[in-house]
Amino acid sequence: MASSSSRNISDLDPDVARRLFEEGATLVLLGVPQGTQLGLDCKSWQVGPRFRGVKMIPPGLHFLHYCSVNSPECGGQMGPKSGLFLTLKPREILLANWDHKTEDLDFSASKNEEEVNRIRANLRDLDPYLGPYPYEVMRKWVSLTDRLSEELAMNLQPLTGRICAFSDVIPEIEFRHTKDREDQPRNDTPCQNMKEGLERLPKMKQREGTELRFSVIPKKTYPPGATPAEITQFSMDLTYTLETVLEENHKQLPLNLLGELQFAFVCFLVGDVYEGFEHWKRLLALLCRSEEAMRKRKELYLGLIGVLYHQLGEIPPEFFVDIVSQSNFLTTTLQDFFQFATGPGMDTALRKRAEKFKAHVTKKFSWDFDVDLEDCTPVVVELPEGVSVD
Question: Distance (Å, rounded) from C-alpha 312 to C-alpha 318?
Fold first, then answer.
C-alpha cells in the first residue's frame, strides 16, 4: 500500500488512533498479487509485496473494491473492477485468500473459526504487513452512505455478492453442441450498415445472479383506465409512479429510497458501474418531478437535499457538461425540483432548505435555474463581486 496512508495515521489524535487500534476491524487479505489495485471505500492503492490486509477499520458498512492485474511479462494490464459491500463489527477479523483462477477474493476462510483464531493470536506479528484504514476519507464515506443500511446494501447487490464494472453476459440462446450451431442459418453477404451488423450479432443477456437488484421504475406513469387528461397529469407530476415504487420496494421504510440512491451513486463513483449512474439518474428524475409527494413526504425530501449536497460535492462541475448535458439532465431535473419545492403550499422548512440548496448549486455549477423552463441550455451566471451564497 502507498506510504501516504502510514503518514496519515500518524496525524490522528492519539486517543482516536488507540481506539481504532483496539476497536477497529481487520481485513486480512492473503495472496493478493503485487500490482493489484485495491481500495476500501473512497481510497485505493497499488498492492506492494508486503501487503497482507487493512487494519484499524471503523466498524460499519464499507465497500471493498479491486482490479486484478496481468504479470509484467503480459503487459501488466488492469482488469475490470469488482467490489462488494460488507459490514464489519468491532474487533472483527475478516479473512480472504486470493483465488488466482477466478482472479477474485475468496472469503470462505472466514467461516473457519480455527483459522480466524490463529490469525487473531498472531495479529501483532502480522501488524507490520497491514495498512491502516485511510481515516482521512472516513467523513466523506459516511456522508455518502449515511442512508444506506447493511440490510439494504445486501438486498441491492447481486446474488453473487460481487458488483462488477462490466456486465457478465451470455447468449440468450446457448448452442452447446456443434450441430446446434451448424443448423443456424448463415448469411455470408457483407453488412450494408452498422444497424444490420448489430442485428446479426447474437442476442445477449446478463448472467443470472449477477444483476444489481435495483427497484423497477414502471414505464407507465399512470394507473390503468386513466383518462387522457389524467395521463397528462400523471406524466407531469410523477407522484403516482413514485408511490408505486415505494409501495413495491420500500413500503415499510420509505426513506430507504435515499439509501438506494446512495447505493447507485457509490456503485458508479467508486465501482465504475455505469448502470449505477443510469439508475441514479432515473431515481433522481422520479423524486424531483413528484410535486404532490413533496407535500406529503416532507422528511423524504429534506433527506434528498442532504444526500444530493454530498453527492454533487464529489463531482467536478465539468463532469455534467461533458457527460450529461447533451440532454441537460441535471439542470432540467433540478430546475423542476426547485420550481416545485419553492412553490405555494409547500412546507416552510422544505422550501427554505431548497432555496439554500439552489443557491449552493448555482454557485458551484454557475447555472441559472430561474430561466424559462423550455430553455434547456445551461446559462452561466455572474455573481456580483463580494456576494456569497454559503
Answer: 12
Whether residue 379 is contained in a domain is answered as no
Question: How far, in whole angstroms, is CA 178 from its chain's centroid?
Answer: 41
Residue 173, CA atoms < 13 Å, CB-side half-sphere: 7
Amino acid, single-letter form, for residue 47: V
**Residue 274, number of CB atoms within 10 A of its CB:** 13
- Specify whether 239 is located in the same domain as 116: no
Predicted TM-score (pTM) of this structure: 0.84
Among 247, 255, 341, smallest CA distance to 303 is for 255
Query: Considering 105, 124, 145, which residue would you say is the last residue of a domain?
Result: 145
What is the domain range of residue 291? 228-365
Query: Tens-digit pLDDT profile for the chain (390 aa)?
Result: 543 344 455 566 777 777 777 789 999 999 999 999 999 999 999 999 999 999 999 999 999 999 988 765 555 678 889 999 999 999 999 999 999 998 999 999 999 999 999 999 999 999 999 999 998 999 999 999 999 999 999 999 999 999 998 766 556 666 665 655 555 556 667 777 776 666 666 676 667 778 999 999 999 999 999 999 999 999 999 999 999 999 999 999 999 999 999 999 999 999 999 999 999 999 999 999 999 999 999 999 999 999 999 999 998 766 665 444 444 678 889 999 999 999 888 999 999 999 999 999 998 887 778 766 455 444 444 444 444 444
